[in-house]
Design goal:
The chain is of the alpha+beta class. The protein has three domains: 34 residues, no CATH class; 78 residues, Orthogonal Bundle (Muramoyl-pentapeptide Carboxypeptidase, domain 1); 119 residues, L,D-transpeptidase catalytic domain-like (Beta Barrel). Helices cover 27% and strands 25% of the residues.
């Protein structure tokens, strides 16, 4: 085998080891070395990047309580909302319109979805800002539960108003058809007690004496009436009327206004 052929053979052997490198081999006669270009091995193509999987959607926050619910847990929710000044009356143990509005306000302040429903995220935030309510906070701050109605309410069609429990019951022949929370006159303008009759209904009434709206007014004694109060809805029992019976749930009193007739009995008692 000639020297050049041997060099080529050696270069070929080296190519097996060297892969895609360039080998220079002498030609055996002292002349310029022979340059042998060995074909480079095509590198394997890296795998294409897989599309990143979409992140899993966050787990939906579970709704714990919402409007219409009732019980001890709702009472605790209301007590804690009172602690952070989002609710000013109660607790009542019933998830009503004021509770829903207070929860919405709390959620808005903290950048949470404003649903008015208490979900796990809202509840966790509230727990972190409040203390455990005691018995007084849970049961004694919002008045006593409604007792048996006054005996004068058990016959006929009656707006049965109890100052002790701060409730108004709409009763027909002894059956309670609906109950709403109410507040009364201040110390120097008390709501009169006794048995009266509705003598005038005024859907869009406006008081000229106090220059204030009195929607859904049902007058029963002089200028005193049962009516919706936006102030009661906003401030709760922190305020008082000029003698009227204030209702804070506008939807409830709208329904009541539609049912009550002139001549229906009104009983106001302690």
């Amino acid at each position: 085998m000639s020297t050049a052929a041997g060099a080529l053979a050696s270069a070929a052997a080296l190519a097996v080891v060297c892969g895609g490198c360039t080998v220079r081999a002498a030609d055996g006669e002292g002349r310029s070395p022979v340059r042998v270009e060995l074909p480079s091995r095509t590198p394997s193509q890296p795998p294409q990047d897989a599309k990143p999987s979409a992140p899993a959607p966050p787990a939906a926050s579970e709704v714990l309580w919402s409007r219409g619910d009732s019980g001890r847990d709702v009472r605790e929710l209301q007590a804690r909302l009172r602690e952070v000044a989002w609710l000013f009356d109660g607790p009542t143990g019933t998830y009503d319109d004021l509770t829903e509005r207070a929860v919405k306000g709390f959620q808005r302040k903290r950048g949470l979805p404003q649903t008015g429903r208490t979900d796990t995220v809202t509840w966790k935030r509230l727990l972190g800002m409040t203390r455990e309510p005691g018995k007084w906070d849970l049961y004694l701050m919002g008045g006593q539960p409604a007792a048996a109605p006054d005996p004068r309410c058990l016959t006929g069609r009656v707006l049965c108003i109890d100052k002790t429990s701060r409730t108004l019951r709409w009763m027909v022949d002894g059956r309670t058809l609906s109950t709403v929370a109410v507040r009364f006159g201040a110390q120097y303008t008390p709501t009169r007690e006794g048995v009266f009759q509705v003598y005038w209904k005024s859907r869009h009434h406006h008081s000229t004496l106090y220059d204030s709206p009195m929607p859904y007014a049902m007058f029963f004694s002089g200028g005193q009436a049962v009516h919706f109060s936006s102030d009661f809805a906003a401030r709760g029992y922190a305020g008082a009327s000029h003698g009227c019976v204030n209702v804070r749930d506008e939807g409830a009193i709208a329904g009541l206004f539609a049912q009550v007739r002139n001549g229906d009995k009104v009983v106001v008692s302690w």
